[in-house]
Design a protein that fits this description.
about 190 residues; alpha/beta; six-stranded mixed beta sheet; about 50% helix; globular
Length: about 190
């Protein structure tokens, strides 16, 4: 009888332990997911980008980011539609995250400049289909940066992407640049 009670208690503890592990895994996932769009959030992007920087330091492979700014305050339905359009234009290995209210950033591992320009065009094409509730097209700005050398940190990635968005807004066209972390040459060319 005592053995049966002890066995039942062990089984119950194992069940509780498994439930807690499952709950913890769910909470970790939710802590890195944007609740409106279902894509990753800024925290998840910063973690993945930091890992990518370390990978680039070790293997010297380029990586790129693309940034998409929806242009003005948009509702949740439009944010979800934009996230779906981005997912449809990207590889499974690319990470999409919502950085701000109307801004998404995409981490493109192992992606050189020529492939990034193709991705930017796919994103532009996909976003053309996303319409506001009244049918008008969004004023989407798209920018991309290819990193040949690892930036010092994730903030450098975000800053470079923001610069490309500003350029895209000014020109009305997707903007891309290749970023090299080496210091610029001095005035005398050395």
């Amino acid at each position: 009888m005592l053995l049966g009670v002890a066995l039942a208690a062990i089984v119950a503890l194992v069940g509780v332990s498994l439930a807690l592990r499952k709950s913890l895994a769910r909470e970790r996932r939710l802590a890195r997911t944007d609740d409106v769009t279902g894509v990753r959030n800024a925290r998840a992007f910063y973690e993945a980008a930091a890992t990518e920087i370390e990978r680039v330091r070790r293997y010297q492979h380029p990586f790129s980011v693309a940034c998409v700014d929806l242009g003005h305050r948009v509702g949740d339905e439009l944010l979800r539609a934009a996230a779906a359009a981005l997912r449809g234009a990207l590889r499974a290995t690319d990470l999409i995250a919502r950085l701000g209210r109307d801004e998404f950033i995409v981490l493109l591992p192992e992606t050189p400049a020529d492939a990034t320009r193709i991705v930017l065009e796919k994103l532009r094409t996909g976003m053309v289909e996303v319409r506001a509730g009244d049918g008008r097209q969004l004023a989407v700005s798209i920018g991309g940066v290819t990193f040949l050398d690892p930036p010092a940190g994730v903030d450098d990635i975000v800053r470079a992407a923001d610069e490309r968005i500003a350029d895209a807004k000014a020109t009305g066209h997707p903007s891309h640049t290749t970023w090299n972390a080496a210091p610029p040459p001095s005035a005398d060319g050395r």
